[in-house]
Design brief:
By secondary structure, the protein is of the alpha/beta class. The protein has 2 domains: 172 residues, 3-Layer(aba) Sandwich (Rossmann fold), CATH 3.40.50; 166 residues, Rossmann fold (3-Layer(aba) Sandwich), CATH 3.40.50.2300. It contains 10 helices and 12 strands. Strands 2-1-3-4-5-11 form a 6-stranded parallel beta sheet, sandwiched between helices. Strands 7-6-8-9-10-12 form a 6-stranded mixed beta sheet, sandwiched between helices. Helix 6 links the parallel strand 6 and strand 7. Helix 1 crosses helix 9, helix 5 packs parallel to helix 6 and helix 5 runs antiparallel to helix 10. It is globular.
Amino acid sequence: MKKVLVLFTVCILLVACADITSGNPNKSSSSDISLDLKPIKLGLVTTVGGIDDDALNDMSWEGILLYAKNAKLPEEDYDYKQSLIKTDYYLNLRKYAESNVDLIIAPCYEFDNELVGIIDDYKNKKFLLINTDIKASNVVSLSFAEQEGAYLAGVTAALKTKAANKQKVGFIGGEDIELIQRVEAGFEQGVAAVDPDIEILKSYTGNFENSLNGLERAEMMYDKGVYVIYQVAGKAGEGVFKAAIKNRENGNECWVIGSEGDQYDFGLCKDGKSVTLTSIVKKIKSIVYQYCKLTATDEFEAAVVKLGLKDNVIGLPLENPNLNEAQIKELESYKNKIIKGEINILLLPKRLR
């Protein structure tokens, strides 16, 4: 029965991600415009990265806004609680649990410790947790095969670097935790698959909030000759884009690979061109929207779900203007090999094996 529920959930998400536009949250899903969507109350607890992090917080909120628009929810029926410091997580989650909110969304692994007690105390509440694997009767926990998307990021960085006759790429993560370590591992294996002689410089900002840390680390990498940096540092990653823009406007060609959402606009320079080579995106907006619908129709089923390239909820953006046709074709080939199981991606980076 559990396998059936998980398969059902994945199928629902596949339909959702194919059906919901990935752009402006004000655009409606064509199949939902005529539906009489049930009014529900929705609450989002953000991480300290803020609602405008262009990552998990931002994309989760876009999913809520899309449902609110299509269901014609009054503004008082959906909102978010901004966590300014990490101790706010517990307080904000409990406030929602004690309210009449129908679905509580927590888009980050950082909520795990805070949620354990609340989930047990409020079994009548439904929780959608992203980047977690908490198992409970009132929880859907979603996690992703980050190493798969990161492998494609590594391939992309290496293809671009090799074409420019360069020899160095960089990786900048937020906190040095298991989730980001999987990303680091996938990235370095993707680079090596294209050219094992390319050198990879790595650094962690120590958090996902301080963009100055990202800026300083990126500047050091570019000064050392790094051509492409893959950033997985949340809001701290904004500093990587700033460093790349500055470097480009000083006459030095360089690139950034974004994460979570399509971060092309983050890399825009004064000339209208972007330093964003591509991004590894997760279709969080579509997933959140679909679980709002499932909550409204009483079809919300507890599950622990792992999603990857084969599920079409993680991958590259639809448009990649800074990649040529040959590079996109090669990336598609690597993607298909991963989906078919022809490429085995180790989950630990070399430094931890």
